[in-house]
């Protein structure tokens, strides 16, 4: 859905998906200004357009046609969208939406797990513009060129500082059908370390949603040491 270039198509598809998976309102005694599917569609547009909450509020205010497509007469304010994000983004909701999205795609013959490989990968999201992995490789290259080693005490202190920061960084692991670019499974966590613990849960989720013949993963998953997963 997020690979679509047309924001108007994205907001329609997100709304339709949310109508199938979400209740109308989170609380029967709330003001009922907006439905949960409508707010979900607005949040998807925020991600699609890479906006802040204030930015997507301004964008939607300038696009009344998009709002009309999902039954809204005015744009929600940024505080409403922030609260909706904390309500809607949960593993149960995301898994229900992935199930429905894969079912829709299967009806159109999109998932190609039996023909094209399914790929597993994980990414650690940095809070800065420079990757720590890149910085580490730079230091390694510099050490090789200069043929000098850091003192053990300094190296240990640097590793402790780096480990403390990395433990708090968000990490997303995905199983993706390479034929259609559909996400078949997702697992969110924090910190660095081996990807191996995520191999079995990702594969089991993906196998539940489509038939897989070929699986591709890098050495970080170390699948040979994993118990047998999938059908």
Give the secondary structure arrangement, pairings included.
Elements: H1 7-21, H2 36-49, H3 53-61, H4 64-69, H5 78-88, H6 91-107, E1 118-124, H7 132-146, H8 152-166, E2 170-177, E3 182-190, H9 199-209, E4 215-217
Parallel strand pairs: 1-4
Antiparallel strand pairs: 1-2, 2-3
Helix pairs in contact: 1-2, 1-6, 2-3, 2-5, 3-5
Walk me through this protein's architecture.
With 231 residues, the chain is of the alpha+beta class. The protein has three domains: 7-89, no CATH class; 111-124 and 169-225; 132-166, no CATH class. The protein is built from nine helices and four strands. It has helices spanning 7-21, 36-49, 53-61, 64-69, 78-88, 91-107, 132-146, 152-166, 199-209; strands at 118-124, 170-177, 182-190, 215-217. Strands 3-2-1-4 form a four-stranded mixed β-sheet. A hairpin with a 4-residue loop joins strand 2 (170-177) and strand 3. It is globular. The model has no long low-confidence stretch (mean pLDDT 80).
Task: Write a concise keyword list for the protein shown above.
231 residues, alpha+beta
What would you say about this model in short?
This protein has 231 residues and is of the alpha+beta class.
Task: Describe the global form.
Answer: globular
Helix percentage range = 40-55%
Measured between the Cα atoms of the first and last residue, the distance is 28 Å
Main sheet: strands, sense, barrel? 4 strands, mixed
Q: Record the strand order, biggest sheet.
A: 3-2-1-4
Strand content: 5-15%
- In sequence order, what are the helices and strands, one letter per element? HHHHHHEHHEEHE
Number of domains: 3
| Rg over CA atoms | 22 Å
- The helix-and-strand class reads alpha+beta
Which residues sit in consecutive blocks of at least 5 with pLDDT less than 50? none
Give average pLDDT, whole number.
80
Number of helices: 9
Count of DSSP strands: 4
């Amino acid at each position: 859905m997020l690979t679509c270039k047309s924001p108007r198509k994205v907001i329609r598809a997100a709304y339709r998906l949310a109508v199938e998976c979400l209740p109308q309102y989170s609380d029967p005694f709330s003001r009922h200004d907006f439905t949960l599917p409508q707010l979900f569609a607005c949040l998807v547009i925020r991600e699609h357009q890479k906006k802040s909450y204030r930015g997507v509020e301004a964008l939607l205010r300038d696009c009344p046609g998009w709002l009309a497509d999902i039954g809204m007469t005015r744009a929600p304010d940024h505080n409403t969208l922030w609260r909706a994000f904390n309500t809607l983004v949960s593993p149960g909701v995301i898994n229900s939406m992935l199930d429905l999205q894969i079912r829709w795609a299967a009806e159109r013959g999109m998932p190609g797990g039996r023909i094209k490989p399914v790929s597993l990968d994980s990414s650690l999201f940095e809070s800065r513009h420079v990757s720590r992995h890149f910085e580490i490789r730079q230091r390694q290259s510099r050490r090789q060129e200069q043929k000098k080693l850091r003192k053990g005490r300094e190296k240990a202190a640097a590793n402790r500082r780096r480990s403390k920061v990395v433990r708090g960084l968000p990490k997303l692991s995905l199983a993706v059908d390479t034929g259609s670019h559909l996400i078949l499974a997702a697992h969110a966590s924090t910190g660095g370390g081996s990807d191996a613990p995520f191999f079995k849960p990702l594969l089991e989720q993906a196998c539940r949603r489509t038939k897989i013949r070929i699986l591709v993963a890098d050495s970080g998953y170390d699948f040979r040491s994993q118990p047998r997963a999938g059908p």
